[in-house]
Design brief:
712 residues, 16% strand, DNA-binding, alpha/beta, six-stranded parallel β-sheet
Length: 712
DNA sequence: CCGGGGTCCATTTTT
DNA sequence: TGGACCCCGG
């Protein structure tokens, strides 16, 4: 097989060891994806299994898509439809469609998104007279999510675990939440796995069916699995024992979301006669970068341990640089970027990886003034946008009348005069009669509980939905979606809207409608959208990337900037307070992930003064900086020794006097209309020396240099 | 149904 | 510091 020739011996070993449990411990940049895809192709090529007999699991849709493409390519363009290759959630969801009745759902159940889940728990908390200000619904839903991560159904929660939150009613709330979901014929993300585990544990015949089907199981990013995912895999693998997991314990950074590093650390004990193959040849980074990363991660106690060997040579030292404050840091990074540009590095080969998103703004502002093109990763996703969620709600109610959450969302959108009082009355009736909102509306419209105006509006809306529903059979679904958005007045609402964003929203809606054409039916589209819909990145321009360290996992760049390496920020204080040593070790893994994203150059910075929540605080360099091996780094600092004298009070004056003015030397005034060569027109908000804060009509608020601005 | 003003609060977020 | 949320007055 010629595809084996390009692999090193450890990789080849991992590809050819097909039977029995196998852990591939794949360090950063050691060709993990390549091993996984080649192995899959190898199983097929050696006729050990047919495509339908393989189960391949990833965490992200992106990873799943990439894997499909690469395997298909290796197999000479073999079609991948119908393969059991996807995310945990997509695969479990697909199984659950077939067996939904075993957990009291019907197969057309809806998958609710985190936003709906939060609204649902909030409603329940209010019904239970829990003060939702003191007990944030966000926290309640997080508790439930964490329980689900550990495969704990309400009956398995101990009083101790539920603690005092929500007047000690969390267990009951969890039960009510699950009941409510069942009534709604809905699942949240965690349920997809949890229900399947329940089914496997209570219906041996169903489990047998999958045992017969799946001869080989492969799992990517195993270090990020939670208990539920682990149990699901274990149940599926217990017969064939042919399970191959790939991962890196040093890159486990989602513990706060329920991931258990323990799963990968324990693999040998969990699966008898398991083999471990370590991939330690690194094809990505220079040895200096690897030494730096290794020096940091070596301080962690709980790890399997491996040492990366660069196949690229020593390279440059990792730069460590201290600066006065965040502004100086952004300025310095900007200068380095300009210098690298002059050396011929593409913008798209440079990235700023921050610990927390609030740190992004300072870089954005600086890049705007310097005209460095950049892209921020981590804004709201396509399907999280208001207009998309609204449109989906219309489609969901059309497809499934009893989807209460969707119906509630659009009942008064666009405004129809159905205010809070009406909705509350409908809900009260629904609850007492134990019926859905949809039924409740029909019933109440036959009484005179509601005012005639509301009754008419509701009846007309319900008739609209009936009409659209009837059209599902006869009208192609993208066309139907267009009709719905039109006839409901939703599209009109945005067309009439004069705000800056409305044009973008209309375009998003059009994009949604055209995206539907890729699916066979409305139902199939809705199934897909809940789990998979992503913002399409049609932005191929050459830009510097600004993103969080978490977002950067799996990516690589020539040059990586790692700002904010300060105690309290990185490692994050909260992480350490809440999770102690475990938290600190996860932060350290984050540092490891950050450094190993770099191919050629890495720049670590820290500042002496960081502004957080509006006040200035002194900062000391992160302990991770001390952990960097001296001979792999080159250290310098702009911080004047003088600055060390006035610390400790916690209340320092701002580093620079800020004198507010209302007019610039050239006569531009606050409130005046101006024009910028790349951002278009806007209004001056604040004047700060030669810098202006301007609200641009199309781009929002930005800080720019006066020299680029002219009055309109 | 809207906007003004006060208050409270702050990480990371694959599905 | 600034954004999200809520209450109240028009």
């Amino acid at each position: 097989m010629n595809y084996l020739n390009s692999l090193n011996s450890a990789q080849k070993d991992a590809v050819e060891n097909i039977d029995g449990p196998l852990l591939v411990l794949a360090g950063a940049g050691t060709g993990k994806t390549r091993v996984l895809t080649t192995r899959l192709a190898h199983v097929l090529n050696t006729h050990k299994a047919m495509p339908g007999e393989l189960l391949a699991v990833t965490f992200t849709n992106k990873a799943a898509m990439e894997m499909k493409e690469r395997v298909s390519h290796l197999m000479g363009g073999m079609p991948v439809e119908g393969w059991w290759l996807g995310t945990f959630h997509a695969l479990a969801g697909r199984m659950l469609r077939r067996h939904a009745d075993l957990v009291g759902l019907s197969s057309n159940y809806t998958i609710i998104d985190p936003d709906d889940a939060q609204r649902l728990i909030k409603q329940l908390m209010e019904v239970n007279s829990i003060d939702v200000k003191k007990n944030l619904p966000k926290v309640a839903i997080a508790m439930i999510d964490r329980w689900k991560d550990r495969a704990l159904t309400p009956d398995k929660i101990t009083t101790e675990e539920a603690d005092d939150f929500a007047n000690g009613k969390m267990i009951s709330l969890y039960t009510q939440y699950q009941d409510r979901l069942k009534t709604l014929n809905a699942c949240d993300f965690g349920d997809l796995l949890l229900h399947m585990i329940t089914i496997f544990q209570t219906h041996q015949d169903v489990l047998d069916q999958y045992h017969r089907r799946f001869r080989y199981i492969m799992v990517d990013e195993y270090q990020d699995t939670n208990v539920a995912q682990y149990l699901w895999l274990r149940l599926l693998a217990q017969k064939s024992k042919n399970i191959c997991v790939v991962g890196d314990d040093d890159q486990s950074i989602y513990g706060w979301r329920g991931a258990e590093v323990g799963n990968i650390l324990r693999f040998e004990q969990d699966f008898e006669n398991a083999r471990i193959i370590k991939l330690e040849d690194n094809y990505r980074s220079t040895q200096n970068i690897l030494n730096a990363a290794d020096g940091v991660i070596a301080h962690n106690e709980k790890r399997l341990g491996k040492t990366l060997r660069s196949q690229k040579g020593t390279g440059d030292n990792v730069i460590v640089h201290g600066l006065w404050d965040g502004e100086a840091e952004a300025r310095w990074v900007g200068e380095q970027i300009e210098q690298l540009q002059r050396q011929g590095v593409n913008n798209s080969e440079m990235a700023i990886l921050v610990r927390a998103s609030f740190m992004m703004r300072e870089f954005e502002e600086r890049f705007i003034t310097l005209h460095i093109p950049y892209r921020v990763i981590g804004g709201p996703r396509f399907y999280e946008r208001m207009e998309i969620r609204d449109a989906l709600a219309y489609l969901r109610v059309t497809a499934q009348p009893h989807d209460d959450l969707a119906l509630e969302r659009i009942l008064n959108t666009p405004k129809r005069g159905l205010g809070n009082t009406t909705v509350q009355r409908l809900y009260d009736h629904a609850r007492t009669a134990e019926i859905s909102l949809h039924e409740s509306i029909w019933q109440l419209c036959e009484t005179d509980d509601l005012k005639p105006k509301q009754r008419e509006t509701l009846l007309s809306l319900m008739k609209d939905f009936e009409r659209w529903r009837a059209a599902i059979e006869t009208t192609p679904h993208p066309e139907l979606a267009g009709i719905i958005l039109d006839e409901s007045g939703y599209m009109e609402m945005w067309k009439a809207d004069k705000s800056v964003e409305s044009q973008g929203r209309i375009e998003n809606l059009k994009e949604l409608v055209s995206a539907m054409a890729d699916f066979e039916s409305l139902a199939q589209f809705l199934e897909h959208v809940a789990l998979v819909m992503e913002a399409q990145e049609n932005d191929s321009a050459d830009k510097v990337t600004i993103m969080t360290l978490h977002g950067a996992k799996g990516l690589e760049f020539d040059c990586v900037f790692l700002p904010g390496w300060e105690e309290g920020l990185f490692p994050s204080q909260r992480s350490m307070d809440e999770n102690g040593l475990k938290g600190l070790e996860e932060e350290r893994r984050l540092a490891y992930v950050g450094l190993t994203r770099a191919r050629e150059r890495a720049f670590v910075t820290h500042v002496a003064n960081r502004r957080t929540y509006g006040n200035w605080v002194n900062a000391i360099p992160s302990r991770f900086i001390e952990e960097l091996p001296e001979d792999a780094i080159e250290s310098s600092s702009d911080i004047q020794p003088r600055s060390m004298h006035w610390d400790s009070s916690g209340f320092n004056p701002a580093p620079k006097a800020f004198i507010a003015r209302t007019e610039t030397a050239n006569g531009l005034k606050v409130g005046g209309r101006v024009k910028h060569p790349s951002f278009g027109e806007g209004t001056i908000l604040v004047i700060d020396g030669n810098k202006l804060d301007i609200i641009f009509d199309r781009m929002g608020r930005k800080r720019v240099l006066e020299s680029f601005i002219e009055a309109v």
